[in-house]
Amino acid sequence: MSTTIDQAFIRQYEADVHHVFQRQGRVLLNPLRHKANIIGSSTTFQKIGKGVATTKARHGVITPMNQDHTAIECVISDFYGGDWVDKLDEAKTNIDEQNAIAKGGAMALGRKVDDQIITILNTTSQTTVTWTLTNSGTVRAALLTMADNLWANDVPNDGDNYGTLTPRAWAQAMVINQFASSDFIGSNGLPFTEGAPIGRFKDWMGIKWTMHTGLPGQGTSSANVYVYHRSSVGYASAKAAGNIAGNQGVSADITWHGDRAAHFVNHLMSGGSCMIDDGGVIEGNLNDTTAVVSS
Questions:
Q1: The 3-state secondary structure of 153-169, one letter per residue
Q2: Treating both helix axes as pointing N-terminal to C-terminal, what angle do 97-121 and 5-23 enclose, rounded to 10 degrees?
């Protein structure tokens, strides 16, 4: 076999990574502040404090608001995911091993992006909302309290607020008639009407809700869920070198190793997340082992 066959593989692999990474793995990158193609080991997100308006006497001097300016550093980390594809092993399987490795690596990097973002969401210092799971009324109250705590921090209800729920918390919410029924939510708020919209969002109470399987404590007696504003959390993606798959800072490096008679399929990504304003992140806590309420 020609050792240059990997060039054809690289081109096909790039197409696979671009396709899969955009659709699988990550859910939370789009609904936050994202800086792409960063050159360097870190970048900064700017935060400006609140101003206070004042009066003045006729012909008097205006008092400056002196709004605080804070530069939030977002440190970028490197991540790798690689696997060997033995040439003779490919002849012994009935699957496209190269394509399977490509998809697996792309989705792993996508999940790593969400892991970083969730880690930052979990650092909020705001008061945690404890869910009571007695009936649909108490579940509704927990969701409304999380939304209320967000608005109480002067977070704007501008369509850029998001909520992430565990699968069990999503099931609990679906018992709430107002959350599940189109009688209470207009067609614009129901872009997806069947099943749990993993990676898609249901608009309710001015918050776009989704289900996520990677939240802390999922399936345990202490699971975390979140509501947050897009501008409260940032993510920085470094500029990728080599064979760039899409624009998310993902590189594919496929090399032929004659001494192993195999290709090494490597995946590279640099990225990092940071908290810009934790007043825009509210955490909820629930027993994720509790049976779904019946009414």
A1: CCCCCCCCEEEEECHHH
A2: 40
CATH number at residue 131: 3.30.2320
- 18 token code pair: 């671009």
The answer on 184 and 150 residing in a single domain is yes
Q: Are 113 and 39 members of one domain?
A: yes
| Helix (H) or strand (E) run with residue 80 in it | strand 77-86
pLDDT in tens, the chain (295 residues): 445 555 555 555 555 554 444 345 678 888 889 888 888 888 888 888 888 888 888 888 988 888 888 888 999 988 887 788 887 766 555 556 666 777 777 778 888 889 999 999 999 999 999 999 999 999 999 999 999 999 999 999 998 999 999 999 999 999 998 888 766 555 555 444 444 455 678 889 889 999 998 899 999 999 999 999 999 999 998 876 544 444 456 777 778 888 888 888 777 888 899 999 999 999 999 999 999 998 8
Distance between CA 255 and CA 135 in Å, rounded?
57
Question: Which tokens go with 81?
Answer: 């995911």
One-character DSSP codes across 52-72: ------TT-PPPP----EEEE
CATH number of the domain within which 29 lies: 3.30.2400
Q: Do 240 and 182 belong to one domain?
A: no
Overall domain count for the chain: 2
Clarify whether residues 106 and 10 are in a common domain: yes
DSSP 132: P
Q: pTM higher than 0.70 for the full model?
A: yes
Inside any domain, residue 151:
yes
Would you say how long the chain is, in residues? 295
